[in-house]
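Hello Y.,

Per our agreement to keep a running log of every chain we model this quarter, I'm adding this entry. I've kept the format consistent with earlier entries: sequence first, then predicted structure.
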Amino acid sequence: MSKLITFAVPCYNSAAYMDHCVRTLLTGGDDIEIILVDDGSTKDDTPAICDRYQAEYPDIVRAIHQENGGHGEGVNQGLRHAQGMYYKVVDSDDWLDEAALKAVLDKLRAFAGAEQPLDLFIANYVYEHVEDNTQKVMKYTNEIGRFRPSQYLLMHSVIYRTEMLRACQLELPKHTFYVDNIFVYQPLPAVKSIYYMDVDLYRYFIGRADQSVNEKVMVTRVDQQVRVTKLMIDSHNLKQLYQTQRKLARYMTSYLSMMMTISSIFLIIDGSPAALGKKTELWEYLRTS
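Predicted structure for the entry above:
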């Protein structure tokens, strides 16, 4: 691989905020690759901004323009073209802490020269609440592998080895929200080595009314949450995994339970007979899988 790490940045009508994201990534220097995936943007200058960064930083930035396929297809596209040994997704309205990025890259360089490559690098992420200008740091300082019931790996916290993701044949569904859960969950049985660094790397901007994690938005998109949950159920036989990797199977069962709970809650909030029927069907799907 010609680069240490690839940062994939899916961009959809992101002109108002993507500059901040890209500028923080560029502080990583020549060791990094930034793939800006323009996901069929039509309402602003996102395509032109992507091309401008490629022209200004031809050895670091690549712009890819695709028909609208959703966030998951942006992640897929980045993975198909990545030249970095490691792969991380950064949403265009988020950013990375520059000092933490330097420390992470230094550690990844050390791992890159090891006989056995590291599969999964974990760092903290920070909720940046726009409404009241507060922060909440999500840490993993308890022993990795002994997660608390409320503690899960999210896309914001992980850096995967690129070739491992490709070997897993990771392919996220198009036009579907909440696929970041699949991105974190599906590759886990292939992970042979993990390293955690206690730095606050990823800054997750939260509070916009149109964000996919907004409660009202989640109710309207509950069918997509259910779809993602079913894809996660289908991705692994956890009963078999318990025979070989008991601790991992326990964690993945807990993760899947969290997804089932979220889906069920938002179907209950919807409250319609159709939604309640979907809740029953989802639990039956899990039972018979």
